[in-house]
TrEMBL record:
UniProt keyword Acetylation, yes or no: no
Protein name: Class I SAM-dependent methyltransferase
A GO biological-process term: methylation
Organism of this sequence: Campylobacter jejuni subsp. doylei
Pfam families: Methyltransf_23
């Protein structure tokens, strides 16, 4: 059962502000997956088996009352390392126009703060989409990441991709240029000691050097009660003002910001200064006792009215949302739809829910679609779901449940009436 715990405040050293701070309980849930980015090649569990659609990790989120940082005290690094080395772990690719459009917007925003002679370093570029886009228009760019992309990108003359984890001292021995601009996107939330990491990054730059940080927007998650955005593999959750305050304390000033995907992501630009100038921007302490409980209950109430349910979106959110769905409702989830051919045929974790395409045969009996793709929900609903209805591909579809901005039930009117 999902529990929002608001217990006694305890003094613990914060991994972000480094103060002996009081932490308050924010959210607790057991039996969650180590990572939502795992898609099995076969069904590992069948309905009625123990721990169907459940994992073996815990989320125990507590908030620092000094800086606002939310930390998962139950984060299990050993289990995460096993996930990253598994062949079932999947890195998201930019296979849709909207993903590519967002990437280009980020690239242009970064370039607007860079000089033509700047040398870039991207930490954990993953599949190197942004990395390669910047390489085409930059003097030189370095990448450091343990992923196996090194041999592919190092063919370019102005690129060096180092297959390793970021270590400032070690990296300095392997570069030939002065770094002017450091980029890391959707990395900071995965780091257990974010202050140590940020200090290393900042010390790598000279005065005037720039940093671009991109993280999920914690305020947006809480405002819209998006419980499925709480991942075990995210050690921490950041508010914008929390990051600005910490970076100011470490000697960097905010020079720009932008929001992506209807404010679901935050992008912050900082410049290293000659002195530390702490800011004291306000941040939200989450005092409410039932932030997510009612949304979880509401989702299960909606699902209980349907017998042939499909999940729309075979990504991380499908894996995380099933952790909160009751066994009574899980038995009625028949399939998960995704456009990505690399995922089709694979399964959500510890379940018999297979990822497949949205063809007539798969849609015919579906009476409810649960949206599990908050970044693209509006586009997919308008361009795909409504098309299923108009074309008659889903003749038995009675409802769509939206999740991007609260849980919302959309009932499909009789299309023959």
């Amino acid at each position: 059962m999902e529990v929002i715990k608001m217990g006694e405040k305890k003094a613990i050293k914060c991994p972000l502000c480094d103060k002996n701070a009081k932490f308050k309980d924010v959210f607790f849930k057991d039996r969650v997956f180590a990572s939502g980015d795992v898609f099995e090649f076969k069904a590992l569990k069948y309905f009625r088996e123990q721990d169907y659609a459940r994992g073996n990790c815990i989320m125990d989120l507590k908030q620092c009352c000094e800086c606002g940082y939310i930390y998962n005290f139950a984060f299990n690094n050993d289990k995460m390392m096993k996930v990253y080395s598994s062949d079932t772990y999947y890195q998201q690719k930019n296979f849709t126009p909207r993903l590519n459009e967002t990437l280009l917007n980020i690239k242009e925003k970064i370039q607007s703060h860079a000089n033509k002679e700047d040398v870039f370093l991207e930490i954990a570029p993953g599949l190197c989409d942004l990395f390669l886009a910047l390489a085409k228009e930059s003097k030189f760019i370095y990448g450091v990441d343990p992923s196996p992309m090194t041999s592919l990108v190092n063919k370019l003359e102005n690129v060096i991709h180092i297959k390793d984890f970021f270590n400032a001292a070690k990296l300095k021995r392997n570069i030939k240029h002065e770094i002017n601009f450091i980029i890391f996107r959707h990395l900071l939330e995965h780091i257990e000691n974010p202050r140590f990491f940020l200090k290393e990054v900042i010390e790598f730059l000279k005065i005037g050097g720039k940093i671009y940080i991109e993280v999920p927007n914690t305020l947006e998650i809480f405002e819209h009660k998006k419980f499925y955005e709480l991942f075990h593999d995210h050690c921490g959750f950041f508010q914008k003002n929390t990051l600005i305050n910490i970076m100011g304390d470490l000697g960097c000033k905010l020079i720009d910001e932008h929001f992506l995907y209807d404010e679901q992501w935050i992008g912050l630009f900082f410049e290293k200064t000659s002195e530390n100038k702490p800011t004291h921007l306000s941040f939200k302490i989450f005092e409410e006792e039932d932030y997510f409980t009612e949304s979880i209950k509401q989702l299960n109430n909606y699902l209980s009215d349907y017998k042939n349910i499909a999940l729309m979106g075979g990504g991380i959110h499908s894996n995380t949302i099933i952790e909160f769905i009751t066994q009574e409702n899980l038995k009625n989830i028949k399939i998960c739809f995704d456009l990505n051919p690399e995922k089709q045929g694979r399964y959500l974790q510890n379940s018999e829910i297979q990822i497949s395409s949205t063809n007539r045969c798969n849609l015919e009996k579906i009476d409810c679609i649960l949206m599990c793709m908050s970044l693209h929900e509006k586009k997919v609903f308008e361009n795909e779901i409504l098309d299923f209805i108009k074309s008659g591909l889903a003749p038995n579809l009675k409802a769509v449940i939206l999740t991007a901005k609260e849980i919302k039930l959309i009932k499909i009117e009789d299309r023959n009436g």
